[in-house]
Sequence to fold (338 residues):
Amino acid sequence: MSSLPTRLWGRLADSSIYFSFDRTGFERHQRAFRPDDLAVDLTGKRCLVTGANSGLGRAAAHALAHLGAEVWLLCRSEERGKVAEHDIREATGNPRVRLELLDLASRSSILAFADRLGETPVDVLVNNAGVLPDRRLETEDGWELTWATNVAGPFLLTSKLLPNLLGASGARVVNVSSGGMYSQQLDLRDIHWRNKSFDGVAAYAQTKRAEVILTELWAERFPDRDIVFNSMHPGWADTPGVSSSLPRFWRFTKNRLRNPRQGADTIIWLAACERIVGESGKFWFDRRPVSTHLLKRTRERSGDRQRLWDLCLEQAGLELPEIIGRREASGFPKLIEN
Ligand SMILES: NC(=O)c1ccc[n+]([C@@H]2O[C@H](COP(=O)([O-])OP(=O)(O)OC[C@H]3O[C@@H](n4cnc5c(N)ncnc54)[C@H](OP(=O)(O)O)[C@@H]3O)[C@@H](O)[C@H]2O)c1
Fold:
């Protein structure tokens, strides 16, 4: 048990955000971690990680492979993906690490991947890939890139992989959000930024807010706990994504940033820890459930949560059966393509 001054300092530091999201925050929070939480053997588990060739996704894939899992690296670049595949195999001695090409910003790429996957059971899906572009870019589907990569793509992937996830026992979906989402209220009025000037940081935070809400909605729709959905934020970690998308922030904070393994810690924990079986629909930071709002003004407007769900389903071109979440005797809720 830590002393009163230490606890008071911890509370003060956490409320500052700066000394919570940074490396010192991780070092302080990890004192409460249970040492045996990650003393697990994931042999026989199949874990899929998007954006696994870089930063947090790579650190998570590495750790899951180290724990014995079969790890699929879902990457858009064959070249970068092959390097990660080779390096993780070499470093962990786990040959069950494989690259699969997948572009989260492309509907056809996600559908093709789901077809290739067939009926293979999936124990863990980590929706980690994310972008923060500094200008408005449109995907081949006509969607703004941040929305496509951070929201629509992961939603479609999760939907298409539901039968695979439900085909494993106790499947876990981990959605990687961001503390940046605390600054934004869900705003569905112009998600593709067609009628307003583009603000990359706001667009990013909006999508990260949407990811957290969708995690709660998925969990509500699957209360039987055969599958759990959780979201997390990593604090601030030194990754290629941060140094390239936020160069000024990176220059200012680089000596205080977490390393990628520290940033990925809660992803790995949510994917692997046995003690948390059944936890679903929560937002986690450094292995603790945390509030999804720090400000009153970011609370969702009435009806927006349902609208978000409906919009994502519509964009995915899918319908879930009315009894979504109820396991059918023969298998799973079937997805009906429109
Ligand atoms: N680092 C932090 O401090 C921090 C803080 C809050 C939240 N996050 C979140 O953590 C996640 C990982 O970020 P990171 O910091 O590790 O950044 P990163 O180093 O840039 O890694 C992002 C990964 O996503 C992949 N990716 C991007 N677009 C993709 C697409 N269309 N299809 C497939 N993969 C795609 C990238 O692939 P390429 O290599 O091909 O570009 C890369 O592998 C993101 O969701 C980010 O929002 C990070």
The first helix runs from residue 4 to 15. The chain has one domain: 20-318. Residues 50-51, 53-57, 75-77, 80, 102-105, 128-131, 149, 176, 178, 233-234, 236-237, 239-242, 263 surround NAP (CB under 6 Å). The radius of gyration is 19 Å.
